[in-house]
Amino acid sequence: MLTKSSPVLSDGTKISELIYPETREVQMRVLSDPEIYELEMEKIFGRTWVMLGHESEIPEPNDFMVRDMGSDSVIVARDKNGEIHVTLNVCPHRGMRVALTDCGNATIHKCIYHGWAFRPNGDFIGSPVKRECMHGKMLPKEELGLKKARVTLYGGLIFATWNVDGPSFDEFLGDAKWYYDMLFLRSDKGMEVLGPPQRFIVNANWKTAGEQSAADGFHTLTLHRWLGEVGNYSKKGPGEEESDEPDLTPEMYGVEVSSPHGHALRCIDLSRKIRRLTGLEPDDLTIQEKLDALPPAGMTKDMVAQLANNLSEDQLKVLTSMPPQVGGIFPNILFGFVYIPQPDGSVVGSMTMHTYIPRGPNKLEFCNWIFAEKDAPEELREKMLKQTIQLFGTSGMVEQDDSDTWPHMTLAAKGAMGRHVTMKYQAIYETGKPEGWPGPGIVNEGFTKDDTQWHWWLYWNELMNAE
User: Which InterPro entries does this entry report, sorted A to Z (predicted)?
Assistant: First the structure.
């Protein structure tokens, strides 16, 4: 547990006074206050693990790309031996940015201001006019390199943290890793990006998107209600008969997993999809028969044999009944491994991840990656890319809905009255995990509730009040 010491804002308000654990409320002020934003850059983005991209974006030795850890620009580079490094994109001489392009290939990164040069791993090489020793003699070269972050790869995803002596990435994921492995570590060769990430700017505070990513399922019924009209959905909830009436309500039932570290997953029941595809009751089918009928999103029938090489029997049980399909990794990641119904009754999988990069108290950069398994056939990859862009890309129908709400929330949080209104997370699970559920974590079943988002805010509060 982190030591608590609540920061005090300039008007005398403590950060701890902006969140009400007993009634599960959060003051709107947190979505617009510049002081809070600056604290977040230090206490959250300066201390937690942050996703920067995927190793397939820099496949060759000396490839690099420039990304952001909170408000800091960083260089993500692969050295000549294939190892990936993340370094602060600030020259230690005069503070100039070293890498000025989004990506490229460079054996040496040289600052244009005074020519200080660095290796892909951030080590200092030297400065111009070697005989004059223009970098001075007060510090050894070993202390003149770019500031280095701690790096880990998870399923090819690149994560980094400035908290060099803090929790490991596995400790950070905790029990949620058991579920994430079903998405990111399920195949023999892993996944790769389908082109560079899409980006656009939204005039909103990063937390409006970040907390929604903590498995907010309920907004789908209203904000995305058109999905029930254009998608191949039909009404069937618990105790209801199936009909031709379009309705997304059945998709709101399933299992949700919360984490003390703010991670969240929505595990959605596959029974209806399998029943439609096979004409049989899922309970009458084996795990293998269900995999053959409906492979995991993004995989083909020919690829499902790989699952047994990488996942446990319990994970396969969940993957074929209520697999994790949408959710988030704290603080600013959303993932979607979803099944997109087709007009002919078939299904195409989508594999996408978003990050919401802070660009100030009132601005975020939406960054969207689209993935495919390396073994996926070209025809499937093309379908996945097209449909994922149409739904979840920067101009996608789903993201147009979501990105319309976040600016309004941010504006409301600036109002003299609005900043004191509270966001409420009071729809609480009273069920617990399903009987026989094999997975760990804080697990509940039934209609989607607010628990996952509330745990996101609890961890935000813990970090913001930690020394």
Answer: ARHD_Rieske_2Fe_2S, RHO_NdoB-like_C, Rieske_2Fe-2S, Rieske_2Fe-2S_sf, Ring_hydroxy_dOase_asu_C_dom, Rng_hydr_dOase-A
* Domain final residue pick, 162, 187, 220: 162
Quote the pTM value.
0.94
Q: Are 53 and 65 in contact (CB under 8 A)?
A: yes
CA separation for the pair 93, 114 (Å, rounded): 8
3-state secondary structure of 88: strand
Phi-psi category of residue 104: left, alpha or beta, with phi > 0 → left and psi -120 to 50 → alpha: left
Same domain, 295 and 149: no
> Under the phi-then-psi rule, with left for phi > 0, alpha for psi from -120 to 50, and beta for the rest, what region is 393?
beta
Dihedral angle at the C-alpha atoms of 373, 378, 380, 381, nearest 10 degrees?
60
Q: What is the count of structural domains for the chain?
A: 2
Examine the fold and report which residue of 162, 192, 218 is the final residue of a domain before the chain moves on: 162
Distance CA 174, CA 154 (A): 14
DSSP symbols for 139-191: S-GGGSS--B-EEEEETTEEEEES-TTS--HHHHHGGGHHHHHHHHS-SSS-E
Residues 253, 446: Cα–Cα separation, whole Å: 5
Range 430-434 contact pairs with CB under 8 angstroms and sequence separation of 24 or more: 433/255, 434/255
In order along the chain (467 residues), what is the average pLDDT of each group of 10 residues?
76 96 98 97 97 98 98 97 98 97 97 96 94 86 96 98 97 98 97 94 97 91 79 49 63 93 96 89 94 94 96 97 96 95 85 97 96 95 92 82 92 96 97 95 96 98 94
pLDDT digit string, tens, across residues 22-54: 999 999 999 999 999 999 999 999 999 999 999
